[in-house]
Amino acid sequence: MDLLAHIDNYCERTDPSLWSEPLNALSNLAFLIAAAVLWRQAHGNTRQTELRCLATLIGLIGVCSGLFHFFGTVWGMILDVAGIALFILVYIQRYLRQLARCPQWACWLGVAVFVAADRAIAKLGSFGLNGSEGYLLPGVTLMAFAVWSRWHSPDATRWLGAASLVFVVSFSLRTLDMALCAHWPFGTHFAWHLLNALVLYCCARGLAGRR
């Protein structure tokens, strides 16, 4: 694997130069803003440490994704995927523990099942979603968490419900990025970043909800 090889998967990128994706790169500031707001709001919360851990992971996503869209290389893509995956797995484990009140073994089993399902879906190949296939399972999982919370953790419902609705829009925009190039040369991937920062913020706030 050539870690320095350039990747051109987005409408905005037209060449391998560092500043070929200005909107895709700068829109990652939304993750840093979401992380900063969450960090501040965590003060005094009974789950302060947990929320600040999630805030740190959201900030990490912003940094890793920013590096990927700035450099447009394989190593940047690996960092980008790793940052997102880390947040998803940590969030699933903490949701199962804090809101679903599962025992520790069940929480880690849930994470293992998610990883296995994700790998199985990946083997099915492309569904014609412009590389968004990997976000189908996280999206469905988020919606399942929102539905479960409706009966078991009402305070979390509004946050996870909002996150689910915004995710549907952001997922659609990510999928349409290349298809709209002829009509909108900047693409729509930057909007995926902006909306996903809101999604992750809402997810973290949902975890702070009382049972």
UniProtKB/TrEMBL annotation:
The chain crosses the membrane at residues 22-39, 51-68, 74-93, 105-122, 134-151, 163-185, 191-208. It comes from the Bacteria. The keyword Protein biosynthesis does not apply. Keywords: Membrane, Transmembrane, Transmembrane helix. This is Ceramidase.
